[in-house]
Design a protein that fits this description.
The chain has about 375 residues and is of the alpha/beta class. About 50% of the residues lie in helices and about 5% in strands.
């Protein structure tokens, strides 16, 4: 594809070729539930003329993101989980996947590709993806669900803790260009617009502070695409984040038992079953400072893709004015004392009580992170 022949800028009258819908994220916006629904209802989608390319990944189409990366990119091996730097395997997969995609596109009016890994692609990989897809589609729609940046950051932190890591702080430091870009939706979508056309990009602001704060992610996704979902199998909400006290306990467990993956999962499920109240993990001033970094990009997001409407409110007042760490620690200790009376949990949680829930200072944190790598 020549850069002067951008697929998303084709004239509206050109409706002969199939439509490619690229759902690129963002992370932690119900993507797992959306992908589960698309997979479970792939037969009903096909009856509506919409193809689901399972050869790109049964539920999450990570392999398309990997195919778009340079063959020697370490991310290609990580995302693809099949190439491991093998140039021949990477090239073979690309060729075969595009042939399968062409056949699927020929048999349907549209196809849906869904992977939050697409959001992470650098500009060169987005151009490469355009080159790969252009021969098979005449129209494109790029769909991104965009949460307010503090919401995304806290959900990502929860996922890291659940995976056995100890994040450096509650909110990310944004110390690298790559990390800042991850939250800069306007910068990300500028690359996708350059390749597929400004008009092909569809942004939906979601989560707290947005107009769709209470929307179900799966229903919203189908509504955004104009897909009639009557008769579709229902999908439970997946990957709910633990509350702040549970995350503090899981962090402490990781510091004492870095490899206790099974125990971590058991403990997380048991903590979730204890009645509790939610505590925001960070104070209001820290959130304001974090969001100030993205004020300009959010204004651009609204101006270019949301008809001039600001995507999020600018006053997230659901955070406490004071640092909530003390209250979170008390709630965490309360739950540990509940668990210590249970035979299954006693040996795991008693050391956390005896040694105390550690306040993680920078030197300790660096040592813990190094040990986990």
């Amino acid at each position: 594809m020549n850069r002067d022949d951008v697929p998303g800028t084709r004239q509206d009258g050109d409706r002969r070729g199939p439509l490619c819908i690229l759902h690129i994220g963002a992370e932690k916006t119900g993507t797992t539930s959306i992908q589960e629904s698309l997979f479970l209802n792939r037969g009903l989608l096909a009856a509506r003329g919409i193809g689901w390319p399972g050869f790109l990944g049964e539920r999450n189409h990570k392999l398309l993101a990997a195919a778009a990366l340079a063959h020697d990119s370490p991310d290609a091996a990580m995302i693809g989980n099949a190439f491991h730097g093998d140039r021949a395997a990477h090239a073979t997969f690309r060729k075969g996947a595009m042939a399968d995609l062409s056949a699927l596109a020929t048999a349907h009016d549209a196809i849906i590709v869904s992977s939050e890994d697409l959001q992470r692609l650098p500009a060169a990989a987005v151009w490469r993806l355009g080159d790969l897809l252009a021969p098979h589609f005449s129209r494109f729609q790029v769909v991104m669900f965009a949460p307010r940046q503090d919401v995304l950051a806290l959900r990502r932190r929860a996922q890291l803790i659940r995976s056995g890591h100890v994040p450096a702080g509650v909110l990310p430091a944004l110390s690298t260009a790559e990390e800042r870009r991850f939250y800069n939706y306007a910068e990300i979508l500028n690359d996708w617009s350059a390749v597929f056309g400004e008009g092909s990009v569809r942004v939906v602001a979601v989560g707290p502070g947005s107009a769709e704060a209470s929307a179900d992610s799966v229903a919203l996704f189908y509504r955004t695409l104009g897909v009639e979902a009557d008769g579709f199998a229902a999908t439970a909400r997946l990957n709910r984040s633990p509350d702040s006290a549970s995350l503090m306990i899981l962090e402490a467990l990781t510091l004492q038992h870095p490899r206790a993956d099974r125990l971590r999962g058991v403990l997380e499920r048991r903590l979730a079953s204890i009645p509790h109240f939610e505590l925001p993990p960070v104070g209001r001033d820290a959130v304001y400072a974090f969001l100030a970094t993205f004020e300009g990009c959010n204004e651009e997001l609204g101006r270019r893709w949301l008809e001039g409407v600001r995507p999020f409110d600018t006053a997230p007042d659901d955070y406490p004015t004071d640092d909530p760490e003390g209250a979170i620690r008390l709630e965490a200790e309360r739950r540990l004392h509940i668990l210590v009376g249970e035979d299954e949990m006693s040996s795991a949680v008693r050391p956390l009580i005896e040694h105390g829930l550690p306040r993680i200072e920078p030197p300790q944190l660096q040592g813990a992170v190094t040990a986990l790598q």
